[in-house]
Specification:
The complex is a heterodimer of chains A (288) and B (367). Chain A is mainly alpha-helical. The radius of gyration of chain A is 24 Å and the shape is globular. Chain A contains twelve helices and two strands. In chain A, strands 1-2 form a two-stranded antiparallel ribbon. Helix content of chain A is 73%, strand content 1%. In chain A, strand 1 and strand 2 form a beta hairpin. Chain A has two domains: 36 residues; 218 residues, MetI-like (MetI-like fold), CATH 1.10.3720.10. Chain B has 367 residues and is α+β, with helices and mostly antiparallel strands. Chain B folds into three domains: 222 residues, P-loop containing nucleotide triphosphate hydrolases (Rossmann fold); 46 residues; 73 residues, OB fold (Dihydrolipoamide Acetyltransferase, E2P) (Beta Barrel), CATH 2.40.50. Helix content of chain B is 23%, strand content 35%. Chain B has nine helices and 20 strands. In chain B, the strands form four sheets. Chain B has a six-stranded mixed β-sheet with strand order 6-7-8-3-9-10, with helices on both faces. Chain B has a five-stranded antiparallel β-sheet with strand order 13-12-11-14-20, with no helix packed on it. A five-stranded antiparallel β-sheet of chain B has the order 15-19-16-17-18, with no helix packed on it. The longest helix of chain B has 18 residues. Chain B is globular, with a radius of gyration of 24 Å. The chains are: A mainly alpha (288), B alpha+beta (367). The structure holds adenosine-5'-diphosphate and magnesium ion (MG). Adenosine-5'-diphosphate binds next to helix 1 of chain B.
Chain lengths: 288, 367
């Protein structure tokens, strides 16, 4: 061994080098700062740098933060469940029943994502609003007498908007997992006596599990930290922990508490993700 | 060689299968007997897999019928047919271990857990994989995967086991070993096997009967010996083993047999027992002779009905055998002759003048 690196190692380092530096500057450094901040204290004008757990005590004991944390987790779990449950049949249809023009279909699925996230959220506002597309249409059709109010500025609107926003990101990993399933495995299961439902439960679903878990995590993790959607369509009832973090860093001028909340949210989502990952592994069996 | 009770287990009648405008099977009829080792042999693309999938129930014939054990299979899906398949890719479930793979179908049948374990163990022993039950699928070698696939089919006690080129992914040595093992296993359990293969040697070694297929039709259905000794057409003859084709013209046909003039060999009368029944004498233009039916006569006196002079133009030494190419005097193309290498017989160099012995019985007439 020694200090001299062989050629392969050197060219490898050269390749990952820029990315590694970028990741260190843009991801690791801010993360480190956030974690550090969370152990400091905000005084009126300056910051007390003695290490303390006080922020965490506040974050985990004050009802307002607890409520927001639980609500965020529940909303993101609902969004994830809705998104993945809707994405699965679409991915399944694409993989098993579309025989021609598969790339075209995949392409079409990504079309809504050509516009920015913000614009899409605004569009939902236009659709769901008091004088929005949906209410106007229903009123004009005479199906309702007064505009529906339960569709905007609450949790329902947040769930709907986020589920739509993340649809493609859930469809694609599930589609890839389904595409990878060797079709002769399904024939073998049929040959051994299984009807369509048992085949699906014993072969397709376990083998698609890596894709389902991937989709679940891809949707869950960013949803938990989303603040644009709850802010725009959630009203007060739909407010989530990320909105509170934003407030702490901004108007409330308590960056250390904001940092503690952020780290706490990260821990919660990390633990939940790990549980989901392990559950998927167990159900998917020894897939390799 | 004879096996089976003689009763039909599968009756295939006038089966066709169209894929759009392409007809993959053009009218297949065959009876497969209970307990026999039956092979579908033919070049790639001739429709073997298509026919096997029709029997298994993964696909429906465009016309014609298939009956298994006396029951028409038209409306019976694959999961309710008394057949089990060993797939070409083996189709081992990657998320299950060996025992779970083998017990897969028994679980569907709601067999009690303890009984499944016992059956699986027995099946694994049968294929020499005892103690492999807890291995993960990806830890198996190609030969072991093949055995697991076989055990998974056998444990179901099907009426018929279907095997689609089960040995083609194995290396030569293992393949030859598995050919013998598979054959012995089939004979000891007495279940009907239908093997799809493009390897004529494999079909000859393993089968009780072989259906040779070309382009969606069965060209000949016969025992390996019959197929080798009396191929009905030139195409079958050249597909099975090596065959010398010699130009010939028809002379006469009478009680003594069929008389033909064969280039280089001369006039010869083939006895009636060796004349194929539906012979159209007007179309005879070629006869066949297997390489081992010729002998190169040495100085020592060896009995030969007839002898024709020629010159050795090449030799290939195989250890136990030597293959010669010999240009017969007055012959068109050189012929191939195989000779067993016995003690005291050395390989003849190119250019040697030889006398080639043969008999009327070694001449094959084609329909
Ligand atoms: N599902 C299908 N669609 C169209 N053509 C097919 C299909 N399955 C088989 N074929 C065609 O039928 C012919 C026979 O195929 P196959 O039975 O697989 O041959 P093999 O004798 O090599 O097993 C081939 O020309 C193949 O291209
Ligand atoms: Mg095939």
């Amino acid at each position: 061994m020694g200090l001299k690196l062989d050629r392969e190692a050197r060219s490898g380092l050269l390749l990952v080098g820029p990315t590694a530096i970028y990741a260190a500057l843009m991801l690791a450094a801010p993360l480190f700062m956030i974690v550090t901040f969370s152990f400091w204290t905000q005084n009126y004008l300056d910051i007390d740098r003695t290490l303390t757990l006080a922020n965490y005590r506040t974050a985990w004991s004050e009802p307002i933060y607890r409520v927001l944390m639980v609500r965020s987790l529940v909303i993101s779990l609902i969004v994830t469940a809705v998104t993945v449950l809707l994405a699965f049949p679409i991915a399944y249809f694409l993989s098993f029943h579309v025989t021609r023009r598969k790339p075209l279909w995949l392409f079409l699925i990504t079309v809504p994502f050509w516009t920015s996230y913000l614009i899409r959220v605004f569009l939902w506002k236009v659709i769901l609003g008091f004088n929005g597309v949906l209410n106007t249409a229903l009123l004009d059709l005479g199906l309702i007498d007064a505009p529906l109010t339960f569709i905007l500025y609450n949790t329902n609107a947040v769930v709907l908007t986020l589920a739509h926003a993340w649809a493609a990101f859930a469809i694609l990993p599930i589609f890839v997992a389904l595409e990878k399933i060797d079709r002769s495995l399904l024939e073998a299961a049929e040959d051994l006596g299984d009807g369509p439902l048992r085949r699906f439960l014993r072969i397709t679903l376990p083998l698609a599990m890596p894709g389902v878990v991937g989709a679940t995590l891809i949707v869950l993790i960013p949803t938990m930290g989303d603040f644009i959607t709850p802010r725009l369509v959630g009203g007060t009832e739909g407010m989530m922990i990320a909105n509170m973090i934003q407030v702490q860093f901004g108007r409330a001028n308590n960056a250390p508490l904001g940092a503690a909340l952020a780290v706490s949210a990260m821990l919660v989502v990390g633990v939940v993700s790990l549980v989901i990952y392990l559950a998927g592994r167990k159900f998917g069996g020894r897939v390799r | 060689m004879a096996a089976g009770t003689g009763n039909s287990i599968i009756e295939i009648a006038g089966v066709t299968r169209d894929f759009g405008s392409f007809q993959a099977l053009k009218g297949i009829s065959a009876d497969i007997r209970e307990g026999e080792f039956f092979s579908l042999l033919g070049p790639s693309g001739c429709g073997k897999t298509t026919l096997l999938r029709l029997i298994a129930g993964f696909d429906e014939p465009t016309s014609g019928t298939i009956a298994i054990d006396g029951r028409p299979m038209a409306d019976i899906p694959a999961n309710r047919r008394p057949t089990n398949m060993v797939f070409q890719s083996y189709a081992i479930f990657p998320h299950l271990d060996v025992a779970e793979n083998v017990g897969y179908g028994l679980k569907t049948r709601r067999m009690p857990r303890a009984q499944i374990a016992a059956e699986v163990e027995k099946a694994l022993e049968m294929v020499d994989l005892a103690d492999y039950g807890r291995r993960a699928a990806h830890e198996l070698s190609g030969g072991q995967r093949q055995r697991v696939a076989l055990a998974r089919a056998l444990v179901m006690r099907p009426k018929v086991v279907l095997l689609d080129e089960p040995l083609s992914a194995l290396d030569k040595k293992l393949r030859e070993q598995m050919q013998v093992e598979l054959r012995e296993l089939q004979q000891s359990i007495g279940i009907t096997f239908i093997l799809v293969t493009h390897d004529q040697e494999e079909a000859l070694i393993m089968s009780d009967r072989i259906a040779v297929m070309f382009e969606g039709r069965i060209a000949q259905l016969a025992s390996p010996e019959e197929l080798y000794r009396h191929p009905r057409t030139k195409r079958v003859a050249s597909f099975i083993g090596v065959m010398n084709f010699l130009p010939a013209t028809f002379v006469s046909r009478d009680a003594a047999g069929v008389t033909v003039d064969v280039t280089a060999l001369g006039r010869v009368t083939i006895p009636p027992a060796l004349v194929p029944a539906p012979l159209d004498s007007a179309t005879i233009d070629t006869v066949g002779v297997r390489p081992e039916m010729f002998t190169i006569l040495s100085d020592r006196v060896e009995p030969a009905e007839r002898a024709t002079p020629g010159t050795v133009t090449g030799n290939s030494y195989y250890g136990d055998m030597t293959y010669y190419t010999v240009q017969l005097d007055g012959g068109a193309a050189p012929i191939t002759i195989s000779m067993r290498n016995t003690a005291g017989r050395s390989v003849l160099p190119s250019g040697s003048r030889v006398s080639v012995g043969w008999g009327a019985e070694s001449i094959v007439l084609f329909e």
